[in-house]
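Training component of the fellowship. As part of building independent skills, the fellow (R.M.) carried out the full modelling exercise for a liganded target. The chosen ligand was S-adenosylmethionine. The inputs are recorded below so that the supervisory panel can assess the work.
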Amino acid sequence: MQKLSERLMCIADMVKPCGCMADIGTDHAYVPIYLCMENKVKTAIAGDVSKGSAEKARQNVELSGLNERISVRLGSGITILKKEDKADCIVIAGMGGMLMCDILKNGDITGISQLVLQPQKDIPEVRHFVHSIGFKIEDEKMLCEDNKFYNIISAVRGGEEYTDTEYEFGKILISKKDKTLKAQLEHEIKISEALLPKVNEKRKQELEAQLLRYKEVLGCL
Ligand SMILES: C[S@@+](CC[C@H](N)C(=O)[O-])C[C@H]1O[C@@H](n2cnc3c(N)ncnc32)[C@H](O)[C@@H]1O
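Fellow's submitted model of the complex:
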């Protein structure tokens, strides 16, 4: 199997050793293959709604020789999971945050003890959603790959409270004084400041409020 990208490696690193993990929207199935090869998980389910992606996953699993341990399934979200799978962990990566929340809403997650989520957008909404279903964020990481910023959230059962700022930027990232969050804020501030002279009054006020929030958090990092 080819080497995992930094993003996929970070996702795999955040999965706790367990009996069964499910990778929803797996595409290539690199994460379940890696986790089984490393014996970090005993078995895995690689699910995807696209026929082409499920076929790609099936071929990669075949090449890895892990057919006995990885079940590739074609279907939407976590509806592909069966009770007897006894999945402990769900990974959903590389899709929009709202789609991720919909996927988790439309299925049974009773037996799941860990969620590893890498939303491409709507990250504050995902943090809110995770709390709304009785999980707490136990770790969060950021990385920059090919000039794109990525957040990876690991959530386990439990409760906790966040302020609005913590939902927007990530409580753990702020408390860790995360270097990538700092780089992202510096980048966003530059873009917003360049935009200010070019926008109408309403947009200007929004951007100024955003800049204030960004600079306040940047001051803590
Ligand atoms: C950009 S790829 C991400 C692949 C991989 N998870 C990663 O992070 O590299 C998104 C994948 O999610 C799949 N997908 C989108 N909606 C889905 C759904 N409702 N259920 C299962 N898979 C879905 C797509 O078919 C696609 O293969």
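The panel noted the following from the submitted structure. The chain has a mean pLDDT of 97. The first strand starts at residue 18 and ends at 24.
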